[in-house]
Amino acid sequence: NAGVMQNPRHLVRRRGQEARLRCSPMKGHSHVYWYRQLPEEGLKFMVYLQKENIIDESGMPKERFSAEFPKEGPSILRIQQVVRGDSAAYFCASSRAGQGSNQPQHFGDGTRLSIL
Amino acid sequence: QKEVEQNSGPLSVPEGAIASLNCTYSDRGSQSFFWYRQYSGKSPELIMFIYSNGDKEDGRFTAQLNKASQYVSLLIRDSQPSDSATYLCAPKGGTSYGKLTFGQGTILTVHP
Question: pLDDT at residue B29 above 70?
Answer without folding.
Answer: yes
